[in-house]
Amino acid sequence: MGTIEHDQGEAQYSIKKEALPPIETVYNPHSLEYCEDPVPQWHELVKRGPLVWYPLWQAWIMTGIKDIMDCWRTEYLSSDFYDWEYAPPRPPESEWTNFERALIGHSLVADKDHHRLVRKVSSPAFSRNVVEAISMRIEPDIKALFDELGTPDSFDYIEKVAAHIPFISITRIVGIPEKYWDDFKPVVTSFTEAWNPTISEERRQKAREDSNRAIDIIQEVIAERRLMPRQDDFLSALIQVEKENEQFREWDIITMVLALIGAGADTTLIAQQWSVYSLLKNRDQIAEALESPEAFGKAFTEMMRWSANSKMGFARYAPEDMELLGQKVRKGQMVLLMPHLKDYDPQYYTEPEKFNMNRSHDKDVLFGYGPRFCIGAALAKRQLFLSLSELFARFPDAELAYEPERDETDHNSIAFKQLVIKTNIQK
Ligand code: HEM
Asked: How far is the CA of 269 from the centre of ligand 1 (A)?
């Protein structure tokens, strides 16, 4: 195991680095080897110091959790995709389509001050009461999915359950009525690709076109909602925030809705797979983990730690030429924050390979930290709690039919090709 001694002087890092093979020969998140067991490759990264240049992605990788938390908290790096050296040029305002208006004009991602204002004024829309009310709306959808499934001897959890939950719950959470779902689904699923730095410009362009269509639909839904009484969803809550705050306009609502969809869909799909897998592999902890939403919240961080499924981390961009953690970073270069690198480090976790839902996670940064802490954390946990509770209530003796094959194609996380569950029900 490589040491993480971030307090050491740069000189000691250089001595170690010289003896090590180039990082691209020992670290490749696109490889099947990584998907089978990423931990040795994480150790290789950490061994090379606090900021490692990774030529395959033309990006720096920040490896130390204290440094990452400092970056999260103080935001000295930019979150704006258009600050990336390889991003397309930022178009002038006269050429903006709705997509640019949502993502440049009133962006959650771009302007730091506006971002803080949006988070502050919109916080009532994400209060405990709203989250509770929204959770109640997701529950019948989850039950309906299991009703439709029936009582088979075995089934693929991803195909039958996990794949449907993110879209259903995000549209319910936001408040997009069912009559729009057929039009909305094909154009929102590629939304996160619109600013993904690791895919082709052609694919990003297609995602931008889809996003423009999605924005048209969101505008239609907002106009309709303005004429209706208040409902239990984010759209109604955000329209209320707009009424009470002059600086919060319709474009802020649109941006927020897009951000919720973008940040809440892929993440929960991956989390569904790995939380079910973790509990099936650690059956002795199922009952305790599902005892209450609070118990699940704690267990969930351990599920995500133990399952080691991260690949890319979180992208930031250097706003200017800078000296950072002993390296010269050029304006526009990408810096990837990888908090998951601590997850199998014995400095932070004793016996990291053991799943123990009662571990303490100090600090728990699964949902980020500081001004950009995840807006959907409570909802994500509740949605997963409801799905897993339903799964084990209906199939208390469920087990893995066989060890699932890993899918190396997802750019952001390690996923499974299938997750086949044997129900073991007595018929
Ligand atoms: C297991 C599921 C999830 C995980 C692990 C997760 C994790 C995170 C993390 C680490 C960040 C910070 C990213 C950064 O610093 O660049 C974040 C941001 C965010 N998340 Fe989540 N998230 C999850 C689910 C959700 C859901 C369901 C929603 C929406 C309902 C959501 C909405 C957001 C939004 C809007 C942001 C951006 C916040 C901002 O920039 O102010 N997330 N999430």
From this structure: 13
